[in-house]
TrEMBL record:
Residues 53-62, 173-186 have a biased composition (Basic and acidic residues). Keywords: Heme, Iron, Metal-binding, Signal. This is Methanol metabolism-related c-type cytochrome. Residues 43-63, 173-200 are annotated as: Disordered. Transmembrane segments: none annotated. Pfam families: Cytochrome_CBB3 (PF13442). Coiled coil: none annotated. GO terms for molecular function: electron transfer activity; heme binding; metal ion binding. PROSITE patterns: CYTC.
Amino acid sequence: MTNSARGWLVSGILPASARLSALVLGAVVSAALVLPAPSHAQDAGATAAKPATEAKEKDDLGKYTLPDGDPTYNIAPDGTLDWYTYSGYRRYHAECHVCHGPDGMGSSYAPALADSLKTLTYAQFMETVVNGKKNIGVGTADQVMPAFGENKNVMCYLDDIYVYLKARADGTLGRERPSKREDKTKAYTANENQCFGRPG
């Protein structure tokens, strides 16, 4: 699935490893087109992210999206998570928690992403993860987020990580390991294999 309004592929899993550079470039260009010029209020973290309470659609990959195309979580009344949120939990703890702490709660040198996604938009999240970010003189130390645009273990699961953190930010998912989940779809597996350049 391509989100032409943003100009990058947002299946949550890149369609082919050869397109990784295009994703990075597309995210930079589209972020410049999509994001408003920074204002003093935005620098202070006043940008409002949408709550994930709008109507949702589910695609053949098992991803739920909001009407504007942003990925979102889906938690059934019995606590069953959609596959993307469950996968995001696993991928976050494999790739992100070393700096950002367990369950997105932050650490002494990296912000709590469960708080950051209360104000970060999807486009801002993508921009930061793909290209990195550097804040000089924040608090008692500089903050540097490395660019992960060429790390397939992050990029192939970026939407998964986003929806997990969004569920944490919205307060709909607790800190415990999810116990119930939807099954991974065949289309998701095929897309995952393609992203990593694996056959089948």
